[in-house]
Amino acid sequence: MKKLTFKISLVVLSSLCLFFLWTSKKTEGCSGGDPEDFTDQSLFAPEISGETTLSPLFITYHSYYNNADYSRNENYTEKNQQEWINYFKKTISNAGVIWLLNTSNVNQIEEIISSAKIDKTIPEELLTHKRDKLYNDALVYLKNAKLAEAFANTYYYSWQEKKVDQHFIDSMSTVFQSNCKNEKNTFLKERYAFQWIRSLYFAGKYQEAINAFTSFFNEKTSTGTIYERCLSYKAGSLYKQQKYSESNYIFSKLFYESGYCRFDAYTSFHPQEEEDWKQTLLLAKNNSEKEVLWQLYGIYASPLVGMKNIFALNPASDKNMILLMRAVNIVEIYAVDNKLDYGYDYIFSPSEESDTSAYAKGYSSYSWYSIQKEQTDTLIQFVETAAKTPGVYKPLVWKTSLAYLYYLKGKTEQAHEILKQLNVESISDPLIKGQNKITEGLLYLDEITKGDITPAQEDVLLSYLLSFRKPSDNYPLRYDNVHRYIVSKLANYYENKQEYVLAEIAYSVNDKFYTDAGKTASMIAYLEQHSHRPLENYLISLYKYSLRDFYELEATLKIYNYDFDGAIASFSKDVSSGERMLDANPFNMRITDCHDCDHAMPQKNPLNKLQFAQKMSAIKHSADSSKVANEKALNYFLYANGLYNMTYYGNCRSVSSSSFYFDTDAALSNREYEEGPYSDADSIQSYLDCREARKYYEMAASFSNNKEFKAKCYWMAAKCEHAYYIETGFPEGKANADFAEYDNYKLLKKDFKNTRYYNEILNECGYFCTYNGGKNCIRNKDE
Amino acid sequence: MSRTLLILLAFLITGCINNRNTNHCFYYWKSDLNIASSDSVLLNELDVHTLYVRYFDVRWIENQQSAFPVAKLSATTKLASNIEVIPVVYIENKVIKNLDSNGIDSLSAKMSTLLHSINTTLSKKPKQVQIDCDWTETTRTKYFELLTHLKSDYKDNILWSATIRLHQVKYKRTTGVPPVDRGMLMFYNMGVLSPQSTANSIYDYQNAANYIEYAKGYPLPFDVALPVFSWSILSRNGKGMTLLNEITAKNFKGNSSFVEKSEDRFICRKEYLLHGTFILPGDEIKVEEITPELSLKAAKQVADKLNSDTFNIVLYHLDHSITQRYEKADFQNIFSCFK
After folding, report:
1. Are residues B111 and B174 in the same domain?
2. I need a surface site. Which of A158, A217, B145, B313 has the fewest CB within 10 A?
């Protein structure tokens, strides 16, 4: 028994290496795929706050939550289009207006103006439209506006030089100013004002831009989109003049009030120095405006500091909701180790790119580091105060947050106390109730894993796990993460109890498990058991491998130990385990290998792995038992072909495939390139080892009297020899030899020079041809 | 007295060496080419007629999966005609890492076009272009390939130089020697940028001493770049957060929001905003200041270690806050160290 285990272990290890070699390296980090987001780790859903306006600012590794692009255009474009549709009094179709605004270029507008249709893509209705003043003036405006795009709407990522054509901007600015002054139509007049102010900004004439704004709007306030956009350029001009206090104050107002440029205002808000910030606060006309400033400060710098200041101004303020949610999620960044495992194809590994620090270097980088372990108690103290303050906005959200913060900090008693106060079952808001159930479940897990989990406790935990399944993909509560977190903690518990099989089933990330023959055998034995407890059954149902996979692995290992009867027996435990198809006919051979050709060749009776094992066993049996030399020779030759083709060098590497893709060991997978050949011939992995095939090629030759056949056998044996030296290094003194001399080469040269096959080899194999001193070999024909 | 002895004597007295053909220069590293008039005067007085001007950075833009130039130079003022420009392009190592051979080929063509375009805008015809990249052993082949391509794509017959960091000098066997005409020995940013480290990461005599002896044996003729800049490292809970450029101890001394922990370390005790950076209570600042004295010390340390008699001495970098902090004589002392 002991011997068997040892053998299996060796085979396991040897077979693992073959997987390494032909499984492409796992995807590290995020290259080529969507990066992991914080939302794949967190257990706390900020959606419980009910905050919708500022939800893009919930914690995420992307610029905005849910990867939404809250660019001004997306919001502004629709509104602008509607305003233009209204301007044209529906004399132009919506599609025509959208084409004019978004698709057309200056030349096309000019063609419409001059009624000279050259460009066939211009919609007919725009050319045949009645030439009234309303239409003509709009076309003139649009032409100028599109000209201004050249300096006002440049693409950031470009290999073009960033050029400022001052003269052009100045001339456009003059046109816009003059048209603004003369235009009677309010709609166009406002737009000219916008173009005028914007062109002054791009001309670097910031004070003039501010003056233009003041003169046009005459300090009146408006809520229109044009007013807000002009105000943005005023704020931008003030910023360029280093008048940060006023600039940031305006941006804060736009952030709060503007539906069209809220997030542009957010990204433009940049307090610079302490004094500026103090002045900005002084500019706020009331507490509400101050709250908005502290809200922005909270998002940028520290949610805790922001919340404290807002709370001091107005405990009932709703502006703390976004900050509270950000604060709790920030604490999670450090407190919850719940990295996502994408499985064998996509194993997340923290790297420079995926480190939160790299992602968080967006607009609010500093706030990401504002509440780390060291500051959690201070946050808890504040939330405790806020939660019990009468009149606080959404007390349920504060208490829900507090219960979870207590859990994160390990303050179990306090967490239970808050949950008791909340009377979770009675909460009518499903998200808040669900979030508290999560905290309850997490606390329960902590409690039961302190001792031995009883079957009754398992049942309760199972009911929690079953309730943490998402009803739909976009359900806000982070049930998937919670579920993964719980089973991973459960796996830790099992690991500590040395229940390795259960640990692996609960949370299978330890691929090394399968390199241990003993553990693998235990797994098979466990899965073959007829009765499991409900929690075990549940975990087994989620486990990524099935018995079928293990049978295939077991059989595969036996195949590479040349035990084909054993492999058949393993496959027979579940016939589906042997159904993996081979890429090519494994009994074919060529003078020079061409896997692609073999794979492309149609197969009459393609084989699966079980059939391959059966054929190999049958061929070997026929060869061994036959009394006819030629029959023996032919069967040993076919058998050798099968052995050759199941190695790395042959056409059926898929014999080695299974459901198991193990943790790539760089040293092994790159061995050929970086570590040189195996120093010890006995350690060659069977997948790379052609010696068994060579043995049977030579045996086949020994039973035959046919020189052509023998030449074929010795040629294949020579290929095996060559492969061996690739794996182990070339013989002494030939390490750098271009054309090494092998035993079978010598034999072919000595005894088979006159065979037809020998000449075929010379024609097809440049290596052998050159070795033989050929001057016109395939390899060196062009030299 | 022999000539060697005289030189040795001169060196012992002044700490500097003589009789070499040097050219005084500055790096200009901002994207807006706008030199204050007082700085223009200073350049003249310091006999600086060459500026190494950063034209653009090439960075890998993740969401575009491509390399693009960022912070492209925008010339709001014309440079004086007597100022010679050596364009500098900084290439992020990640760009080289992520590009294949075709990508390198096309990057070289695009860089050349953009270099020429900015030359035209500045009305300059540079005699040298410098490429700055902290290449590594794994990127050296592709980086060197890029340099070779650039020489042919740029077409004008000019000199090419590349920045060489101290570790690349010492480990030239593994990091290789770039295929260019000259190397710019970067005699700064030589230490570990860490809030915990006690040494100054910009320049530290002992740190430099571990590498500088290898400079003589480097196969490319060196120009030398010296630091005249400072920064402070802001850290929170021991983790470095950001660098505060040109922020020195004077920004914190006597400031009630900070407590002085040591000569170069300050702890924030009340929220504070500084140059757009939010500093929170508990945050620590490590000041890494390069004083005129330290700049001079660096110059003296490197002066006799160079492998060339004709070279440029380049100060990093021309910035009004630096020209306010250094006296004209400070710059002169640094330059004269190599005479």
Report:
1. yes
2. A158
Same domain, B174 and B75: yes
Whether omega for the bond prior to residue A62 falls within 30 degrees of 0, making it cis, is no
pLDDT > 70: percent of chain B: 94
| B273:A271 CB<8 A | yes
Q: Is A586 on the interface with B (CB under 8 A)?
A: no
C-alpha dihedral, B190 to B194 to B200 to B202, nearest 10°: 40
**A276 touching B, CB under 8 A?**
yes
Over residues A338-349, the pLDDT tens digits come to 866 543 333 333
Q: What is the CATH number of the domain that holds B193?
A: 3.20.20.80
The answer to the question of residue A276 being in a domain is no
Q: Taking all residues of chain A, what is their mean pLDDT, rounded to a whole number?
A: 85
Residues B257/B270, Cβ–Cβ less than 8 Å: yes
Chain B contact set for A372 (CB, 8 A): 236-237
Residue numbers in chain B where pLDDT is lower than 50: 1-14
pLDDT of residue A737: 57
- Structural domain includes residue B154: yes
Domain extent, residue A601, equals 582-771
What confidence category does residue A98 fall into, taking pLDDT thresholds of 50, 70 and 90?
A: very high
In a 3-state reduction of DSSP, which class is residue A146? helix
pLDDT digits (tens, 9 = 90+) for B167-188: 999 989 888 999 999 999 999 9
Segment A377-393, tens digit of pLDDT: 999 999 999 999 999 99
The alpha-helical segments, DSSP class H, found in A499-654 are 500-506, 517-528, 534-542, 547-559, 564-572, 595-600, 609-625, 629-645
Three-class secondary structure of residue B79 per DSSP: coil
pLDDT 10s digits, A416-458: 999 999 999 999 999 999 999 999 999 999 999 999 999 999 9
pLDDT digits (tens, 9 = 90+) for A77-93: 888 899 999 999 989 99
Residues paired with residue B23 on neighbouring β-strands, in sequence order? B312
Of the residues A206, A241, A258, the one at which a domain ends: A258
Instruction: Name the domain count of chain A.
Output: 2
Residues B122 and B204 placed together within one structural domain of the fold: yes
Cα separation, A67 vs A357, whole angstroms: 18
DSSP codes joined into one string, A31-74: TTSPPP-GGGT-S--GGGG---TTGGGSS-SSSSGGG----HHH
Per-residue pLDDT band for A661 (boundaries 50, 70, 90) equals low
**Bigger pLDDT: A5 or B213?**
B213
For residue A148, the distance in angstroms to the closest alpha carbon of chain B comes to: 19
- A182 occurs within a structural domain: yes
Based on the domain organization, do B222 and B298 belong to the same domain? yes
Residue after which a domain boundary falls, among A258, A293, A309: A258
C-alpha–C-alpha distance, residues B288 and B243, integer Å: 10
Domain membership of residue B2 (yes or no) is no
Q: How far is B278 from chain A (nearest CA, A)?
A: 6
Beta-carbon separation of B257 and A274 below 8 A = yes
A247 inside 8 A of chain B by CB? no
Query: Which structural domain range is residue B249 located in?
Result: 235-285
What is the distance between the alpha carbons of residues A534 and A540, in angstroms, rounded to a whole number?
10
Number of domains in chain B: 2
Question: How close, in Å, is residue A119 to chain B by CA atoms?
Answer: 32
Of A163, A271, A367, the CB nearest to B121: A163
Alpha-carbon gap, residue B88 to B110, rounded angstroms: 15
Measure B222 CA to nearest chain A CA, in Å.
31
pLDDT at A58 over 70: yes
Q: How far is A54 from chain B (nearest CA, A)?
A: 22
Please, which pLDDT band fits residue A291 given cuts at 50, 70 and 90? very high
CATH number at residue A170: 1.25.40
Cβ separation of A204 and B113 shorter than 8 Å?
no
| Chain A residues with CB-CB distance to B110 below 8 A | 159
CB B224 within 8 A of CB B314: yes
List, for residues A580-622, the tens digit of each pLDDT value: 999 999 999 999 999 999 999 999 899 999 999 999 999 999 9
Structural domain contains residue A658: yes
> In chain A, which residues have their Cβ closer than 8 Å to the Cβ of B237?
369, 372-374
A609 falls within a domain:
yes
Q: Is residue B3 part of a domain?
A: no
Q: Name the token pair of B218.
A: 């480097």
A:679-738 residues touching chain B, CB 8 A cutoff: none
Give yes or no for A300 touching B (CB within 8 A).
Answer: yes
